[in-house]
Amino acid sequence: MDDQNQAKKPGPELRRLNAFAGKWNTSGTLQAMPGDPPVYFHGTDTYEWLPGGFFLLHTVDVMMGNERKQSIEVIGYDPLSELYPMQHFDDQGESGIMHGRLEGDQWTILSSELRFNGIFSADMKTLTGVWEQCMEDSWTHLMEIALTKP
Q1: Helix, strand, or coil here: 100?
Q2: What is residue 50's predicted lDDT score, i.e. its pLDDT?
Q3: At the top level of its lineage, which domain of life is listed (predicted)?
Q4: Whole-angstrom distance, CA of residue 45 vs CA of residue 71
Q5: Any idea where the domains of the chain sit in the sequence?
Q6: Which of 11, 29, 94, 128 is 20 to 30 A distant from 68 in Cα terms?
Q7: Is the pLDDT at 75 greater than 90, yes or no?
Q8: pTM to 2 decimals?
Q9: Are 17 and 134 in contact (CB under 8 A)?
Q10: CA distance 65 to 99
């Protein structure tokens, strides 16, 4: 059998995303505008492999205050940039692309408007971090978040 007929298999970079697989309890606070009181949120984040194991589907279902927010995201791997491209879509018609990097227990995400810095616990059952947004060429605190596997 030649190389073209052999089934493609996900590489070790994709297998590293197994740390996310499963259902997480999510909670945190959102600082919508500087000076406004923070809004508490809670819900679930679920990560599951699509058939073939090349893409991870991330679904979000949270209550932010009294408002339900839902979104999906597809995460893959780009060997040229060595980053994880992430395409997301939400229940308000918004979509976008971000790029993640997983180095040890550090998970970072970056787009032109948002960035996230998070860290996994030693047992890989908790991911905590901070989201920031770019406003007027300056990064400001947006959200603190914690995801915990039950």
Answers
A1: strand
A2: 98
A3: Bacteria
A4: 10
A5: 10-148
A6: 128
A7: yes
A8: 0.91
A9: no
A10: 28
